[in-house]
Amino acid sequence: MDSNLAAGLAMIGAIGPGIGLGIGFSKAMEALGRNPDAAGTIFVPYILGLALTEAIGIYCFVVALILIFT
Length: 70
Description:
The structure is a single chain. The chain has one domain: F1F0 ATP synthase subunit C (F1FO ATP Synthase, Up-down Bundle), CATH 1.20.20.10. Helices cover 87% and strands 0% of the residues. The longest helix is centred in the C-terminal third of the chain and has 31 residues. The chain is elongated, with a radius of gyration of 16 Å.
């Protein structure tokens, strides 16, 4: 029972990356709307930032799974 509670609390850590992904996507689309010619310049840092942010959420999920099944 305690491990399920700990797993639930570990998943709270996924809130931050979720908000970060939303804000990052919003700002990238806003930048492309203002300057469509900058699409090539914005693309690589945008994808890199999304990948790193998503990795934090995945780490929270992995920790939660470890807490449930150990």
